[in-house]
Amino acid sequence: MEYLGEAIALSIDGIILGVCLRQYFVCSKAINAVKDVEIHEVNSQLAEVLKNKPDNKIGYVAIRGYVKALGNPLYSVNDKRISGVVQRLTVKEHVVARTTAGFWSDQERTMQQVCNSVPFALKNGNYNVEIIDALEAKIFDMDIISDEFKPSAPTIVDHIWGFFTGVRQRGLQSTEEMLREGIPLTGIGELTLNSSTSNEIILQPPTKAPYYLTTMSVGSLLRKLDNKKTTYKYLCIIFGTIGIVIGGIVIKRYIKDRENEKIAEQLRKNLEQSRKERRQRVRDGELRDDQLCIVCKTNPREIILLPCGHVCLCEDCSDSIKLFCPACRQKIDQKAAAYIT
Predict the structure, then answer these.
(1) Which residues lie in coiled coils (predicted)?
(2) Range of the domain at 191
(3) Rounded to whole angstroms, how far apart are CA atoms 180 and 292?
(4) Cα(35)–Cα(214) distance, rounded to whole angstroms?
(5) Within this chain, do residues 164 and 309 fall inside the same structural domain, yes or no?
(6) Over the stretch 115-154, which tens digit does the pLDDT of each residue have?
(7) In this structure, what CATH number is given to the domain that contains residue 297?
(8) 196 and 67 in one domain?
(9) Are 110 and 90 in contact (CB under 8 A)?
(10) Contact (CB, 8 A) for 40 and 187
């Protein structure tokens, strides 16, 4: 408990540093994977390339084409003229909540989120590559079709209730996102040739690398990942420095405490030696029996017991006798040094 505050601060800093380090290495791994990715065009030669690969697949590849639904597309609930293949509808509640410190802060929480999708492919001319498990992509770019905020109109009763519950509603935010048909999209993942279904080509999540479906080019994606990596690098440096500073403070305080303990121990030894020398001088003076401790009969009487006032114990024996005076059996309330001349 002596270093509780520093231990808590160091633990929190260590957790944050660990998260930042993990994200830094994740970004580094992703950058290395994307740098080494094979880039292929969606054309007639793609199927032939896959046939010459082991198991008819390429472990990590980048392709680019135009989004096209394999069947009936989805239509926006806010604009029927917009069609797409993946749709995400989100409803969030915005509130002002009272924190444990007593302050009010803006917060939001997702009340409902619905994702709809239809089979789709990346198309280039008469050739296409079907996309599998699009929602599992690490980066999945979709357009915001609608983002509407409806503020609430609380009554006096709502204000009173919010004051006691600690939550006041500000309003509801409804957002619609959609991967629209016809937009160019870069897919990075595992490319497989399904020879059992008329040489259908499929892009799916890879086993040991991140899956991306983005409107960016491969170069733009690399720059984005590199910026993210740089951010986590600086965060690691900042929180690592904080950890070193806290650790240095703890070490400095520990060393200072040990030095104080050594000084106190040395002082105790000096006092003990002084007491021994003083007792020796007293013994050399041939004490009478009434001047010796009534318990050990060796050391001089050094302690007065209150409230009875008896001076009958040496300092060593007084440490073990705490309740009653050995001379009169009266309860001991206080002890003090007595100097007998």
Answers:
(1) 257-284
(2) 38-215
(3) 103
(4) 16
(5) no
(6) 999 999 999 888 889 999 999 999 999 999 999 999 888 8
(7) 3.30.40.10
(8) yes
(9) yes
(10) no
